[in-house]
Specification:
The chain has five helices and four strands; from the N terminus they run E-H-E-H-H-E-H-E-H. The chain is α+β, with helices and mostly antiparallel strands and about 110 residues long. The longest helix is centred in the N-terminal third of the chain and has 9 residues.
Length: about 110
């Protein structure tokens, strides 16, 4: 079988300095083992979110970091509400938000 060459059909075909389509993994990757597993299964990279949001290197306010480390996850939900309220909508992209009066008022009205 011959190599068909680079795939130039996608809108981001030049992303990351290559014309080959990229595969990524996301969700529940929280440590090096998850990263290694995703790469072993053929992913070109992974998307890491909440886990590193609270890191020392993250530029977010200390209050956000404290809320993340104080949470056991049961007081949060996946939603688009904060992004919609800010006018920044990424269709289908969810973020984890802490349940509060604002989220409770808008939940189900997205």
């Amino acid at each position: 079988m011959t190599d068909p060459g680079p795939d130039r059909s996608g809108p981001h075909s030049g992303l990351w300095g290559s014309s080959r389509k990229k595969d990524g993994a996301a969700s529940r990757i929280a440590d090096g083992r998850g990263l290694a597993a995703a790469l072993a299964l053929g992913s070109d990279g992974v998307l890491l979110g909440t886990r590193f949001f609270a890191s020392q290197e993250s530029p977010v306010h200390w209050n956000f970091k404290q809320a993340i480390t104080d949470s056991d996850g049961h007081d949060t939900l996946l939603t688009e509400i904060p992004d919609r309220a800010a006018g920044i909508v990424w269709p289908g992209a969810m973020l984890r938000a802490r349940r509060n009066a604002f989220i409770g008022h808008w939940a189900g009205r997205e």
